[in-house]
TrEMBL record:
Organism of this sequence: Lentinula aciculospora
Keywords assigned by UniProt, alphabetized: Actin-binding, Cytoplasm, Cytoskeleton
Family: Belongs to the ARPC3 family.
A GO biological-process term: Arp2/3 complex-mediated actin nucleation
Listed name of the protein: Actin-related protein 2/3 complex subunit 3
C-alpha cells in the first residue's frame, strides 16, 4: 500500500527553493510565507490530516516538491509529540503551547546544512539569500503548525489526546529532524 502524497504536487506556479515547494498557508503570524485562501485547505491542514497514516510507512516515494515540504512537516510533528511526551508531568495546553513555540523557533538544520538528516533527498538552496528565505519560511510554517497541533491535541480538555500521543515514538521513514 503506498503512502499518501501531497495534493499540492500538481499546483502550478509555486516557488521552489532547492527542490522544496514554498506553499501558501493560512496564518495569523507575520512572516515570509505566502497567504492562502482561508476557505481552502493548506499544506499544514494536509500535513495534520496525513500525519498518522503516513507515519506508519518506512518508505516514501517523493513525487514532487510539495512532498518534500510534507516530509519535513510530518517529521516536525513527530518532534513536537516527542517534546510533549518527554516533559515529566503531563503539560497543560498553555505549557505545551510555550514548549512547542520554543521548539518552532529554535535553530534547526535546513536542506544543504551538514546536519540535515535528509540531504540525500533534498537539493540545497541556490544562494545564501534563498537559504535564509527557506529558514524563515520553515520557521513561520513550524510556528503555525505547532499552534494548530496544540489545538488538536487539547481539543477535549487539559490533557493531550491519547490517540495522537500514541504516535510520539513512531518515526516516519525511521527518521527525525532532531540531531
Amino acid at each position: 500500500m503506498p503512502a499518501y502524497h501531497s495534493s499540492f504536487n500538481e499546483e502550478a506556479d509555486v516557488r521552489q527553493v532547492g527542490n522544496m515547494s514554498i506553499l501558501p498557508i493560512k496564518t495569523k503570524f507575520r512572516g515570509v510565507a505566502p497567504f492562502a485562501d482561508p476557505s481552502q485547505p493548506d499544506i499544514i491542514d494536509e500535513t495534520l490530516d496525513l500525519f498518522r497514516a503516513n507515519s506508519l510507512f518506512r518508505n516514501f516515494e517523493i513525487k514532487g516538491p510539495a512532498d518534500r515540504t510534507l516530509i519535513v512537516l510530518i517529521l516536525f510533528i513527530s518532534d513536537c509529540l516527542a517534546k510533549i511526551g518527554s516533559i515529566r508531568s503531563t503539560p497543560n495546553k498553555i505549557e505545551a503551547t510555550k514548549s512547542l513555540n520554543t521548539l518552532s523557533v529554535d535553530s534547526f538544520p535546513i536542506p544543504g546544512d551538514a546536519n540535515f538528516n535528509l540531504n540525500a533527498h533534498y537539493a540545497p538552496a541556490a544562494s545564501r539569500a534563498d537559504a535564509e528565505f527557506l529558514r524563515s519560511y520553515l520557521t513561520h510554517v513550524r510556528q503555525e503548525l505547532s499552534l494548530r497541533l496544540v489545538n488538536i491535541l487539547y481539543a477535549d480538555g487539559d490533557i493531550p489526546n491519547k490517540w495522537w500521543m500514541s504516535f510520539q515514538k513512531r518515526r516516519f521513514m525511521n527518521r527525525s529532524l532532531g540531531a
